[in-house]
Every structure is written in structure tokens, then in C-alpha cells.
Amino acid sequence: MPLQFVSTVLISGQIMTVGCKEIFRELVELLDSLYGQQEAEAIAYRILDLQFAIGKLDFLLNKEIELPTSWEQIKLELQAGKPFQYVLGKEFFCDLKIGLNESTLIPRPETEELVGLILSKVKGGKILDIGTGSGCIPLSIKKSLPQAEVFAWDISELALDQAKKNAENLQINVDFQLQDVFEWRNSEGNWDVIISNPPYVLEEEKKEMKSHVLDFEPPLALFVPNENPLLYYKAIAEMAKERLNPGGFLYFEINQLFGKEVKQMMENIGFENVQIVKDFRGKDRFVYGKF
């Protein structure tokens, strides 16, 4: 079959190859009106890395890549404002490629900081992550602490399905369990470390959020009632009081507005040496303490 060239894309049978810089330019043009030039370029680089494993040197050399048959559909979904992580079904987290579905939040850089904070202080033992979603936190911890026993809870079966797939793909052993934290008395186990990045966005904060978050990320994993912003934190801290081994630690990722309130609540329950830690943007983002 003779070769054809269409918009610099080489078509040979059903296989299309093109220089990565051409795809980069195409993506930036597609996304510019949605995100602006700078963010569009950052997203384009991320897509090249996630989908095609194109690094900096590959980009400089304009390495050719093979486009999937779904490429036109991918572009349509990106153009509709769907976050690229959901379009591709994956995101990097602590150097792991984490699969995502519609029931899992997109992992954030702040949560990578939470993992780093934990790993700077925890060297093993029994560890539980509550509200695990994609499993990015326990999988990252188990990868770094293979000697630890790592467990994870979530109320969403779809999220747990994805977390288990991630564990299988990454060949990392985490015990994922379907469990409602408000029904924790029906569970079993004691732990040395309990971690949670629970829903903490107030309903009233919706008006300040971007549409690609509101339209695509699971509300169950995002929002808490305006009148009860510490709903999950109180439940988890009460559970941790009963289930942490002596000298155990509780780690939270928090809404920046409620650092002092979470700290006070933990101290009232009986936690000691409770600390508020800022994220890379200088905002109160993590609280931890010892019981």
C-alpha cells in the first residue's frame, strides 16, 4: 500500500505515527481557549508523558509516536473540558502511574506532600488509609515501606475496583476493604498509623471552583455540609482514639480554612503534640498528632 501524508501524520495501514512536537502544537491549540497558553502547554507536556512516555530529551529530538485509534475521541473529550487525567484514565503520583475512573479523585501534588510527610516519620507497622479512592496513598506508602502492613477503606465499590486494579498493575500488596467510616465499629483491626484525605470542600465553595472539577470529579469525595465542615475529621479521630495502638499517629489532609479547628478537635479527643503543616503554597494543609 502506498504511503500517504495527511497534516504531517504518516498513515500506514491502521498505524499513524507523527513527531511529538506536532502533537504538542495540536494539543496546545486545542486547549488554549479553555486554559490559557501557559496551562495548555503544561497539560500538553503531561499528556505526552502520560500517554506516550515522551520525556524532555525525546521532545527535543522530536521523537515519533504512534497514535492510538482513539486519538480523535481523546481530542474531543479534551476539547469538551474533561480533565486529561480522566480522558486518559491515569495520572502520576509519587512516581507511580495510577489508574483513575469516574469514582476516584484526581491525585493532587499536596497529597504527594502528605505521603512525603508520613514517610519522613513512619518506618513500618500497620497502616490504614481511610477514603482511599484510587489507592494512591497506600500504594505509594507500601512501595516505599514494603515491610509495612497496609490497609485501605472506601465506601465506593467503583473506587475500590480501580484501587485493586492499580495494586495488581503495580504489583503492590495493599488490603483494600469496603467500609463506611461512620460504621467503623463494624470493622476489625488496630493500627500504628491512620491516614485520611477525606472530603473537605464546603458546599459554598462550589462557586469558586472550576467547571472541570465540578463537572467531572465525584462529589462524594469532595464536599461536606457548610454547617459541619469537620464531619469526617471528627468521626475518624474518634475511631482512631479507639483503634490506634499506643503511641500511634493520625495524619490528615485538610481544608486550609480549618487547620486550627482540626488541631483543637484532635487535642480535645486526647491527641498529643498535634502539628499543623503548610503545603508548598504556604497554606495550612496537614494536621497530625500522636495518641
UniProtKB/TrEMBL annotation:
GO molecular function annotations of the record: nucleic acid binding; peptide chain release factor N(5)-glutamine methyltransferase activity
InterPro entries: DNA_methylase_N6_adenine_CS, HemK-like, N5-glutamine_MTase, RF_methyltr_PrmC, SAM-dependent_MTases_sf, Small_mtfrase_dom
Keyword Iron-sulfur appears in the UniProt entry: no
Gene3D superfamilies xrefs: Vaccinia Virus protein VP39 (3.40.50.150)
Superkingdom of origin organism: Bacteria
Keywords in alphabetical order: Methyltransferase, S-adenosyl-L-methionine, Transferase
Entry-linked SUPFAM superfamilies: S-adenosyl-L-methionine-dependent methyltransferases
Enzyme Commission numbers on file: 2.1.1.297
Sequence ranges assigned to domain Methyltransferase small in this UniProt record: 119-206
A GO biological process held by the record: methylation
Catalysis performed (reactions): L-glutaminyl-[peptide chain release factor] + S-adenosyl-L-methionine = N(5)-methyl-L-glutaminyl-[peptide chain release factor] + S-adenosyl-L-homocysteine + H(+)
Xref: NCBIfam families: hemK_fam, RF_mod_PrmC
Protein name in the entry: peptide chain release factor N(5)-glutamine methyltransferase
Species this chain originates from: Sandaracinomonas limnophila
Chain's gene name: prmC
